[in-house]
């Protein structure tokens, strides 16, 4: 039997730590950590209250994490890095807490962690893969949140929330807006980021797309392209980029012994199986493109919205369940999520100080 008060306290503690970590942390969790109360969330969903700026950001924060879920389902660049990172964090937590007494592994774990960080942070022309990843989450997240497609408004609101507190999240966005225009930076850029994360070298791919755009006769014409038209313009095969990584069944993952592991067998896929299942249930390739590269977030909600919402008071809600649901099964699922995420956070902190 799970102690409900202890579970709530653990969730509140995790929320505080994740919030404190802020943009210094990259970790796939499947959850959105929100500052608003559960009752405000429900009121917003039911449209029974007007929105404040804080409400807008918390609504967007869910979609920001939703973009990361889409990346995990579709990006052959990000998936192995993200889940190697999570696996290392889990192992490091076990070493830190004495559950794994093989202390000789610590230096190897720390070395592998630094190598993963280096891949994410290696600069090319002033930007790194993590810039592409987070710019995609920011720009597509706001496109899914906002009910219109005005580039200047999207740029304004992104800078309103990020420019002072976390300017690196809007640095690439602002550079592209300045070099081209606001519509390119807020409407076309997230699509370019999605296509770039299909490549082995995302930053170089993004620069190639931007250079090609620079030679076009009309930016506005390309901004107005449908997702399918843009893929054709970019030379991106629709039937490939719209397939989930599980469908591609690529053997780009390897086990600790160096043997190929089919993605369908990878242990981390099970944790995010819901997102793979929901995306793969959409049969039409162009419809998938509209979900991944469109602006109507409501249509992408079943596929990519995080399964868990975690509030500062320790409430944890599972998407699609009754807010009053308090069954032992629901409590166990929420508790398992909080415990696993807290362990990974503990492991990352351990690796960062090794």
Can you summarize this structure?
With 354 residues, this protein is mainly alpha-helical. Helices cover 65% and strands 4% of the residues.
Helix/strand/pairing category: mainly alpha
Helix content: 55-70%
Number of helices: 19
Largest sheet: 3 strands, mixed
Task: Detail the poorly predicted runs.
Answer: none
> Whole-number average pLDDT?
85
The value of Rg in angstroms is: 20 Å
Describe how the helices and strands are arranged.
Layout: H1 4-21, E1 31-34, H2 38-45, H3 53-74, H4 78-96, H5 105-121, H6 129-145, H7 151-162, H8 168-179, H9 182-196, H10 202-214, H11 219-223, H12 227-234, H13 238-241, H14 245-248, E2 253-254, E3 260-261, H15 267-271, H16 273-280, H17 285-293, H18 297-304, E4 308-311, E5 316-318, H19 328-352
Could you walk me through the main structural features you see in this protein, from its secondary elements to its overall organization?
There is one protein chain. The chain is mainly alpha-helical and 354 residues long. The protein has a domain at 4-121 and 225-246 and 291-352. Helix content is 65%, strand content 4%. Helix 3 crosses helix 6. It has a 3-stranded mixed sheet with strand order 1-4-5. It contains 19 helices and 5 strands.
């Amino acid at each position: 039997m799970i102690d409900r008060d202890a579970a709530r306290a653990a969730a509140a503690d995790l929320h505080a730590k994740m919030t404190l970590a802020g943009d210094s942390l990259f970790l796939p969790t499947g959850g959105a950590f929100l500052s608003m109360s559960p009752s405000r969330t429900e009121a917003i969903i039911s449209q029974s209250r007007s929105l404040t700026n804080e409400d807008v950001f918390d609504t967007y924060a869910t979609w920001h994490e939703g973009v990361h879920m889409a990346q995990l389902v579709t990006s052959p660049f990000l998936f192995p890095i993200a889940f190697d990172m999570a696996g290392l964090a889990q192992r490091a937590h076990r070493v830190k807490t004495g559950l794994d007494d093989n202390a000789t592994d610590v230096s190897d774990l720390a070395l592998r962690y630094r190598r993963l960080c280096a891949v994410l942070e290696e600069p090319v022309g002033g930007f790194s893969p993590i810039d592409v990843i987070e710019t995609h989450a920011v720009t597509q997240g706001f496109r899914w949140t906002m009910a219109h497609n005005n580039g200047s408004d999207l740029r304004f609101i992104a800078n309103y929330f990020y420019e002072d507190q976390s300017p690196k999240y809007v640095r690439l966005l602002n550079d592209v807006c300045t070099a081209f225009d606001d519509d390119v930076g807020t409407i076309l850029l997230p699509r370019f980021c999605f296509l770039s994360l299909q490549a082995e070298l995302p930053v170089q791919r993004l620069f190639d797309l931007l250079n090609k755009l620079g030679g076009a006769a009309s930016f506005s014409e390309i901004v107005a392209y449908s997702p399918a038209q843009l893929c054709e313009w970019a030379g991106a095969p629709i039937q490939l980029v719209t397939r989930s990584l599980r469908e591609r069944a690529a053997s780009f993952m390897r086990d600790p012994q160096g043997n190929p592991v089919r993605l369908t067998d990878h242990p981390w896929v099970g944790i995010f199986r819901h997102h793979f299942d929901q995306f793969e249930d959409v049969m039409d390739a162009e419809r998938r493109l509209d979900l991944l590269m469109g602006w109507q977030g409501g249509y992408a909600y079943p596929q990519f919205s995080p399964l868990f919402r975690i509030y500062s008071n320790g409430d944890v809600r599972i998407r699609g369940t009754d807010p009053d649901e308090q069954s032992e099964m629901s409590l166990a699922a929420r508790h398992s999520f909080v415990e696993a995420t807290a362990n990974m956070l503990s492991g990352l902190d351990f690796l960062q100080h090794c």
